[in-house]
Amino acid sequence: MNRKAKIIGTGSYLPERVLTNSDLEQMVETSDDWIVSRTGMKERRLAGPQEYASTMGAAASRVAIADAELTPDQIDFIIVATSTPDYTFPSTACLIQDQIGAKSAGAVDIQAACTGYLYALSMAKAWVETGAYRNILVVAPEKLSSITNYKDRTTCILFGDGAAACIVSLQGKGLVIETIRLGADGEQAELLMVPGGGCRQPATADSVANSQHYIKMAGNEVFKHAVRRMESASKECLEAAQVNEKEIAWVIPHQANIRIIDAMAKRFEHLPPERVFKTVHKYGNTSASSVGIALDELLRAEMTKSGEKILLTAFGAGLTWGAAVLHHE
Ligand code: ACO
C-alpha cells in the first residue's frame, strides 16, 4: 500500500478569559514592555475553574470531527498529548472518549511536552497507514495555568491554556502527512520540568510549600536548544520529504517565544517572516496544543490553498523536538 495518512479535519478551543500583560503587572514585578520585547506576547487565555484538559480537548475534538464530516462513533482510536492531564490516571483520552461519545475508540495519553502534537501525529500516521485503525483523533489539550507559579515572573508570563485536535485518516481530502521526524535528549531533562507530583517526589505538604508542583525552567538554555533543534529537525524533515525550503508556503513553529521563532527562521535561506505563522502574541505558549491551534487557525482563515506545502516544527521538555511536512491536496 502506497497511500499516505492525511489530516482530514481540525479543531481548536481557547478559553474565554484573557490574561493580559497589564494583568501580570499587577501580579509580579514585570512590565508590558519587557514581556513584549522579550517574548512577543501580549495576552494569553486562562481556563475557568470548571475547565480541564478533558473538557477543552473534547470541545476541540467535536469541531475536528464535524470538520472531517464524521460522527464520534466513526473514531476508532484517540491519542491525547498533554502535560496537564486531568488525573495521573485514568487517562485524559478516556475522559474525552466518554465526553464526545466515541464508543468504539481505544484511548491513550502520551507525554512529549510541547512536541506532543507532532509525536501523536506520527503515531496516528503510522497506525492509519498500516491499517491498524481508520480514523484516529489526535488531541492536544493543555491547562498550563494549573502548573504555572504566578509568583515566578520568569515563567508565569509565558504560558496559556488551550486545546487542538485533528482527525488522521486515509479517506477524504485534506493535508497529506508527507514526512515526520522526531528526536529526544533525556540528558537535558532538568532544563525544563515539573519536579514534584511524580513518583520521585510525590505531593506532600512540603513539596507544595516548596512550589515543586510548578514548571521550573532554565530559560536561557532552553532558548538555545529550541532554536537549534527546531532548525535541525525542520531541515532533516525537508530533506527526507525531498522538499526544498523554497517550496514551503507556511511554517508553523511551536509558539514558545517570538525571539525563538525569529531566530529559527533566520537560519533558513528562503524563509521570509511573512511565511511564518504566529499566534504567540495572543495565546502565549500553550505547549502541546500550540502548533495544532495555529494550524487550525491557518486553515479556518483560508490562508492556505490546494497544492501548498506546510512545515510544522516543535520543541519541548524532555528534551523533545520534531518536524512534519504536510501537503495541502
Ligand atoms: N519581567 C521583568 N524582568 C524579568 C522577567 C519579567 N517577567 N523575567 C526575568 N526578568 C529579568 C531577569 O531577572 C533578569 O534580570 P537580571 O539581569 O537582573 O538578572 C533579566 O530579566 C534577564 O533575564 P533572562 O532570563 O536572561 O531573560 P531572557 O531574555 O533570556 O528572557 C525568557 C527570558 C523569556 C524566559 C527566555 O529565556 C525564553 O523565552 N526562554 C525559552 C522559554 C521557552 O521557550 N520555554 C518553553 C519551551 S518548551 C515548552 O514550551 C515547555
Please provide a written account of the structure.
By secondary structure, the chain is an alpha+beta fold. The protein folds into 2 domains: 168 residues, Thiolase/Chalcone synthase (Peroxisomal Thiolase, Chain A, domain 1); 151 residues, Thiolase/Chalcone synthase (Peroxisomal Thiolase, Chain A, domain 1, 3-Layer(aba) Sandwich), CATH 3.40.47. It is 33% helix and 24% strand. The chain has 11 helices and 13 strands. A 9-stranded mixed β-sheet has the order 5-4-6-7-1-8-13-12-11, sandwiched between helices. A two-stranded antiparallel sheet has the order 2-3. A two-stranded antiparallel ribbon has the order 9-10. Helix 8 crosses helix 9. The longest helix is centred in the C-terminal third of the chain and has 23 residues. The two termini are 19 Å apart. The chain binds acetyl coenzyme *A (ACO). The site of acetyl coenzyme *A has 24 residues, from helix 2, helix 6, helix 8 and strand 12. Acetyl coenzyme *A binds next to helix 2, helix 6, helix 8 and strand 12.
What attributes characterize this protein structure?
two-stranded antiparallel ribbon, Peroxisomal Thiolase, Chain A, domain 1, alpha+beta, 9-stranded mixed sheet, globular, about 325 residues, binds acetyl coenzyme *A, about 35% helix, single chain, 2 domains
Furnish the topology, listing elements before pairings:
Blueprint: E1 6-13, E2 17-20, H1 21-27, H2 32-39, E3 43-46, H3 53-67, E4 77-81, H4 92-100, E5 106-110, H5 116-129, E6 136-143, H6 153-156, E7 161-169, E8 175-184, E9 192-193, H7 205-209, E10 216-217, H8 219-241, E11 248-253, H9 258-266, H10 280-283, H11 289-300, E12 309-316, E13 320-328
Parallel strand pairs: 4-5, 4-6, 11-12
Antiparallel strand pairs: 1-7, 1-8, 2-3, 6-7, 8-13, 9-10, 12-13
Helix pairs in contact: 3-4, 8-9
The structure holds acetyl coenzyme *A.
